[in-house]
Design brief:
Blueprint lengths: L1 E5 L4 H12 L3 E6 L7 H12 L4 E5 L5 H8 L5 E4 L8 H4 L1 H21 L4 E7 L23 H20 L3 E6 L2 E2 L8 H10 L3 E4 L6 E3 L1 E2 H13 L7 E6 L4 E3 H12 L4 E4 L15 H7 L7 H16 L5
Parallel strand pairs: 1-2, 1-4, 2-3, 4-5, 5-6, 6-11, 7-10, 8-13
Antiparallel strand pairs: 9-12
The chain binds nicotinamide-adenine-dinucleotide (NAD).
Nicotinamide-adenine-dinucleotide (NAD) binds next to α1, α5 and β5.
């Protein structure tokens, strides 16, 4: 297959592209390598992908429609749209970045998927669309009309935009609601990276909501596997589908930190703080739909996942003194 992966230099996009290339697909990658976090990390991921001859990379912003059209002209079978302004907290600081990439950029991908009759458009949504729910675990039918940050509002909008296009133009579209994806090559703005970094440097770690947060942590290989299963699914299906992509087990943040400490053989200097504006207290996914649909079976628990992240972090990142 010839697959377009937007956000290919990002955490999930990199892993997904690598796996798709290993399966012998042609991957066209697009990313603007913005500086929301260390662009060197994105370049390093990209250098690994560029070693494969079946990978073609284009550096541009998805808000530039002319450039998108040029890429769509390359007869693409499937679009995996992951490029977005990610991060919950930053959306309180800079909502404009979310408006541009997640709404304007998303629309450019959607309208060109229609124009170029793309057989399957798969895009990243988020567990944040659920806001703070009372009933757990959360399934795909739960209410998503109460986003508590602008990030979630943009992703909910993406789902609505996609659903309308799918109904109007009979497009096959899948929205994937990712739940806290973590693992090697992970994002520096996420808890695992920040905690590891600070504990190793003997710096304090800030623990919001007095440590009462709970998360459904999804290991990157499980996330990539779910996306691949959806790409290759043969089953007849409705045109627009939404899937929770998670581990299916919610863990206390305190337990997560204990495992990091154990792996690093260091004690964290913890500072307990109140709940932050825009923070969701608990995420816990019902993953029956994806399990039934494509026989998805998450296989990595947080003990193994954190160990793998720390091995990578020490080898690739910390050794450079960064
Ligand atoms: N990692 C998670 O836990 C998680 C959870 C829920 C949803 N998501 C979603 O999954 C997707 C991938 O997340 P990630 O963790 O890999 O994030 P990431 O920030 O590592 O990757 C996103 C990539 O997209 C690129 N990008 C951003 N805006 C762009 C634009 N306008 N034009 C071109 N490229 C642009 C960035 O440079 C980056 O490399 C995002 O849509 C994110 O919102 C991630």
């Amino acid at each position: 297959m010839k697959i377009l992966v937007t956000g290919c230099a990002g955490f999930i996009g990199f892993h997904l592209s690598k796996h798709l290339l290993e399966e012998n697909n042609n991957v066209i990658g697009v990313d603007n390598i913005n500086n929301y976090y260390d662009p060197n990390l994105k370049e390093k991921r990209l250098n690994i992908l560029k070693k494969n001859k079946k990978f073609k990379f284009y550096k541009f912003d998805i808000c530039n429609e002319d450039k998108i059209i040029k890429v769509f002209k390359k007869r693409i079978d499937c679009v995996i749209h992951l490029a977005a302004q990610a991060g919950v907290r930053y959306s309180l600081e800079n909502p404009d970045a979310y408006f541009q990439s997640n709404l304007k950029g998303f629309y450019n991908i959607l309208i060109n998927s229609k124009r170029f009759k793309i057989k399957h458009l798969i895009f990243a949504s988020t567990s944040s669309v659920y806001g703070n729910q009372k009933v757990m675990p959360i399934d795909e039918k739960s209410d998503i009309t109460n986003p508590i940050q602008f990030y979630a509002a943009t992703k909910t909008s993406n789902e609505l935009m996609a659903s309308s296009f799918s109904q109007l133009y009979q497009m096959k579209i899948s929205a994937l609601r990712f739940f806290t994806v973590y693992g090697p090559w992970g994002r520096p703005d996420m808890a695992l990276f920040k905690f590891t970094n600070n504990i190793l440097r003997k710096k304090q770690i800030d623990i919001y909501n007095f440590g009462k947060h709970k998360r459904d942590f999804t290991y990157i290989d499980d996330c990539v596997n779910a996306i691949k299963l959806i790409i290759h699914a043969k089953k007849k299906r409705k045109k627009f589908e939404v899937f929770n992509i998670a581990n299916g087990k919610s863990e206390k943040l305190e337990k997560y930190i204990k495992i990091i400490e154990r792996e690093l053989k260091l004690k964290a200097k913890k500072k307990y703080l109140p709940l932050q504006k825009g923070d969701i207290q608990t995420t816990s996914a019902n993953i029956n739909k994806i399990k039934k649909f494509v026989k998805y079976k998450p296989s990595v628990n947080i003990e193994t996942g954190i160990k793998k992240f720390i091995e990578w972090y020490k080898f690739y990142y910390y050794k450079n003194g960064k």
